[in-house]
Design a protein that fits this description.
By secondary structure, the chain is of the alpha+beta class. It has a domain at 3-31 and 45-185: Ribosomal Protein S5, domain 2. It is built from eleven helices and 13 strands. The chain has helices at 3-14, 94-105, 130-146, 153-166, 175-182, 222-241, 254-260, 267-291, 295-311, 318-329, 356-371; strands at residues 20-30, 42-43, 45-58, 63-68, 77-80, 114-120, 187-192, 198-202, 208-218, 333-339, 344-352, 376-380, 387-388. The strands form three sheets. A six-stranded mixed sheet has the order 5-4-6-3-1-13, with helices on both faces. A four-stranded antiparallel sheet has the order 10-11-9-12. The chain has a three-stranded antiparallel sheet with strand order 2-7-8, sandwiched between helices. The chain is globular, with a radius of gyration of 21 Å. The structure holds adenosine-5'-diphosphate and magnesium ion. Keywords: ATP-binding, Carbohydrate metabolism, Cytoplasm, Galactose metabolism, Kinase, Magnesium, Metal-binding, Nucleotide-binding, Transferase.
Length: 389
């Protein structure tokens, strides 16, 4: 949808006149470094050109008008700056409201209300972080509207994460909001989630594309398993800390892990910690491979990442494994893995240009035969972080 169409829709809903502003914040895909963000490790996400847009106009009173073209049935949801509490009936508005609440908690006073139109082209709940994009979008809108110049883009990521943790009750790490706020066209972000130190690494795929497949399944395990994995890793860390001086699992190398792993008493916990340690090292090596223009090695590390998520961390599922197995077996596919939290959602693959059409057609067909519904394919580009548009 074009900006002009969004503005026209806004005026149709809320009336004409006044100064209208528009903002964009992207979704993201993580190329490698999965389930490392809460283990003190590295991640390597990039912002997509897919994302969420907002059209906004100030109001003289303290009321808030919310309308999403993705949730049209709910119509305009009216609330106010004096009612920034979660509301189950207007579920999606809890994301922007949470960010407003987080601004006020930080001491930034929001002195007037707004009418807001939202539109996004990221599939919701598929692991491409539509929620983080909505949070960063709201943060940018508030920063610009109220002239909070001392708030940086990294602050917007932190505020988004804070609101998702504390207002929406989802215990996510910083990766998603960071990628949405700080993304850079044609680059991925090599982020140390422990220190928030980051570097941009150019993703130059001369004869290949990044292709995301949405399995269109989401198993109900997601939330409980996520919390289980976090707890398992925390316990494993405490066991390791009895025998070696580390702050996070990200501080260990593979050799270090092998040396100390017997301190972890439970074999399942040992596998979880192994994934966290090895995946972090794989991520470091993958970024190096990319810097050396060794896309082939990058792909092999993606494949190894999937293997580890499937068998050691056990966050894959049958549908995702079908997609990854089909992709990895196809000549012309450089690498393929699950991306996002797991138990459904999306895979990410690097596919040679000449293979992309076949990839979509053949995997699409076989997936439908095996699973019974269609997968969705997105040939994506790496875009910039949140911006005024
Ligand atoms: P993910 O972040 O992986 O896409 P989540 O379940 O964390 O999945 O977030 C999806 C939720 O974010 C949606 O159910 C909705 O509440 C909110 N959301 C995302 N995009 C939009 C949008 N364009 N309009 C309204 N709400 C949205
Ligand atoms: Mg989310």
């Amino acid at each position: 949808m074009q900006k002009e169409q969004l503005i026209a829709k806004f005026q149709e809903l809320y009336g004409e006149g006044g100064e209208i502003r528009t903002y964009f914040a992207p979704g993201r895909v993580n190329l490698i470094g999965e389930h490392t963000d809460y283990n003190g490790g590295h991640v390597f996400p990039c912002a997509l050109t897919m994302g969420t847009w907002a059209v906004v106009r100030n109001r003289a009173d303290r009321k808030l008008g919310f309308y999403s073209l993705n949730f049209e049935k709910l119509g305009i949801i009216e609330t106010s700056l004096d009612e920034l509490v979660p509301n189950k009936d207007a579920g999606w508005t809890n994301y922007p409201k949470g960010v407003m609440w987080a601004f006020e908690k930080r001491g930034y006073e929001l002195t007037h209300g707004m009418d807001i139109l939202i539109y996004g082209n990221i599939p919701n709940g598929s692991g491409l972080s539509s929620s983080a994009s909505l949070e960063v979008l709201t943060g940018l809108m508030l920063k610009d509207t109220f002239g909070f110049e001392d708030i940086s883009m990294i602050d917007l990521a932190l505020i988004g994460q804070y609101s998702e943790n504390n207002f929406n009750g989802c215990n996510c790490g910083i990766m998603d909001q960071f990628a949405s706020a700080m993304g850079k066209k044609d680059h991925a972000i090599f982020l140390d989630t422990n220190t928030l130190k980051y570097e941009y690494a150019p993703v130059v795929l001369e004869n290949a594309k990044i292709v995301i497949i949405n399995s269109k399944v989401k198993h109900s395990l997601v939330d409980s398993a996520y919390n289980d994995r976090r707890n398992e890793c925390e316990t494993a860390l405490k066991e390791l800390q009895k025998v070696t001086d580390i702050k996070t699992l990200g501080d260990l190398t593979e050799d270090g892990f092998e040396q100390y792993k017997d301190a972890i008493k439970d074999p399942v916990r040992q596998k979880r910690a192994k994934h966290a340690v090895y995946e972090n090292q794989r991520t470091i090596r993958a970024v190096e491979a990319l810097r050396n223009n060794d896309v082939k090695l990058f792909g092999q590390l993606m494949n190894a990442s999937h293997e580890s998520l499937r068998h050691d961390y056990e966050v894959s599922c049958e549908e995702i494994d079908i997609l990854v197995d089909l992709a990895q077996a196809m000549p012309g596919v450089i690498g393929s893995r699950i991306t996002g939290g797991g138990f459904g959602g999306c895979t990410v693959s690097i596919v040679e240009d000449a293979t992309v059409d076949r990839f979509i057609e053949e995997i699409g067909k076989t997936y439908k035969e095996k699973v019974g519904h269609e997968a969705e394919f997105y040939v994506v580009e790496i875009g910039d972080g949140a911006k005024i548009v």
